[in-house]
Design a protein that fits this description.
The protein has 394 residues and is mostly helical. The protein has helices at residues 24-30, 32-47, 50-73, 82-101, 110-131, 136-159, 164-185, 194-219, 226-247, 250-260, 265-277, 279-298, 306-331, 336-346, 357-387; strands spanning 10-11, 14-15. Helices cover 75% and strands 1% of the residues.
Amino acid sequence: MTTPSDPSRRRPGMALREGGKVKFLELFFDLVFVLAFTQCTALMVEQHSWPGIAQGMLVLAVLWWSWAGYAWLTSVLDPDEGAVRFAMFGAMAALVIAGLAVPEAFGDLGLMFAIAYGVVRFAHLLLFVLASRDDPNLRQSVTSLAVSSVIGIGLLTTASFLDGIGQGAVWALAVAIDLGGPALFGVAGWRLVPAHFAERHGLVIILALGESIVVLGIGAELGLDAPVIVAVILGVALASALWWIYFDVVALITERRLTQAAPGRERNALARDSYSYLHLPMVAGIVLVAYGLESTVAHVDEPLDTVPAFALLGGAAIYLLAHVVLRLRNARSLNRHRLMIALVLLAPVPFVGEVPSLATLTGVVLLLWLMIALETRSYGEARHHLRLGHPVES
């Protein structure tokens, strides 16, 4: 057995992670993504169009993948030790620049975004190379990741010189290649600390939900009359429902499954699918809801246009559908409640232009809390024991 002082657990200027507790530096690092999420919402609000939503989601996917890479990294390396700390500071600076460039990532600041993103990814890869010097399996995985990363960065750089449909297509290809690397090359050589990995992803969901609260204040800047107050209260109720849907049971079960999975290929594949991949549509759904909330509060007496209506209703539906797929991946069973509510949310999108935005928001909130009430009752004693940390049937 190794100890924190064991030389086998150290590299020059760095140390391998001991234990599962998230470090303060990781929390500090994650704060950059509050800006990133807000900027993705700002891009969609400014565009107020279907291409704007597509651009916002592509930028979000790129930023998410950079965050996910550091979640894997800090589940191997202790970020508080030596050179890793300074590398994290440098990555934060590059991420802030990338975040500031987001609203013009498909315009005049496209090249700046690609360069800043490239700095973030190369710093991540360099640290992983140093961490894997005595671990051939990890080093092989890092080399494979570097291939897809370099191609993705190159495509984003190329896209900065294009416009229109061609630019969007190159962005989509960059996202597909970058995110698809671990699926194509496998995950057997990676390492992680399950409790730490799960906690990092829970915290990023919290950050995304926090951004949905921030936009309520932005949308309410025009005045704080009675309809706006009602919309803000409903917005908090919606964010609270999204929190409950994930953290009441799902987060606990997913972490438990990750912890119980056999180390190596099985655990790494579960972490890749359940967290790196399936938490992206959860965050995307929350960011879309934030866009819909901002539009609702800003135009509380008017019907929502089709695009922000899709963001509000479709964002909540995407969030639920991600949970449906997560359960299919982990338990091989279908969550019919969440699937049904997701479909119900999507159905009225073409027709909400005739309904006041406040009524639309009320309907979303009532549907989600009705689902929560039904699920809480159906989970019964199993939910109680799970939340107390007792063994329960899978």
